[in-house]
Amino acid sequence: MRMRAFTNRAARTSALLGAVAATGLLLTACGADGTAPSASATASPSATAAAPGSAASPAPAPGPFNDADVMFAQMMIPHHEQALEMARLADGRAQDADVKKLVAAIERAQDPEIRTMRAWLKGWGRPGTADHGDGHGGGHGDGHGMAGMMSEQDMKRLASAEGEEFDRAFAELMIAHHEGAVAMAEEERKNGLNPTAKKLAGDVVRTQSAEVAELRRILDRL
């Protein structure tokens, strides 16, 4: 009898110790406040370690690039800047509601694209303008010779117009400006190498071609 009682007590003690150990493991798994463990608490050291190079900012336009990519950015930046200058002239001058909508769309799209292309050139270690000093147009920082760029006379004509006269002049000039940008973007799609630059070129072709169609509709009814 005495041996049986000792055996029973030993069994109960072993069961109690097992329960306490199990409770301790459960608390460890759940955390001191009873919440589920975080991903970092359960992940392996290799999973939580920072990936190589993660501390550095990624390249703005990752992957290889060529001279066509660089030229596209260097030329499209001043081209976009002039489009924004034209759009700003609409303030207080434009009358047509659809012209005003297009002005807002141009500002929304092209200002961020300018910042993007500047970041590409910085990441590529290339200058922000394409002034080669060879005396030829089609790529200088002043924009002379680039397809669709407005002359000083064109800009003065736009600045002096108001109401319907402005709307018509804006539509006519922006059609030519957009068509120049589309031609430049098509060249990038054909000759460029960098996937990010070629994607933006595709966006320019799609967006500005649609805006040209809308501008032509506006002209037809003015």
How would you characterize the overall build of this protein?
The chain has 222 residues and is mostly helical. The chain folds into two domains: 2-35; 67-221, Ferritin, core subunit, four-helix bundle (Ferritin, Up-down Bundle), CATH 1.20.1260. It is built from eight helices and no strands. The protein has helices at residues 2-30, 39-42, 45-48, 67-88, 97-124, 152-160, 163-191, 195-221.
The ordered H/E elements are HHHHHHHH
Number of domains: 2
Shape: elongated
Structural class: mainly alpha
Radius of gyration equals 33 Å
The CATH architecture of the largest domain comes to Up-down Bundle
CATH homologous superfamily designation of the largest domain: Ferritin, core subunit, four-helix bundle
Q: What does the average pLDDT come to?
A: 77
**CATH C-level name of the largest domain:** Mainly Alpha
- Give the assembly state of these chains: single chain
Q: Look up the CATH topology of the largest domain.
A: Ferritin
Counted by DSSP, the helix tally is 8
Number of strands: 0
User: Helical content, roughly?
Assistant: 55-70%
Beta-strand content bin: under 5%
Q: What is the makeup of the main sheet? A: none
Distance between the termini: 113 Å
Low-confidence stretches: 1-59, 132-144
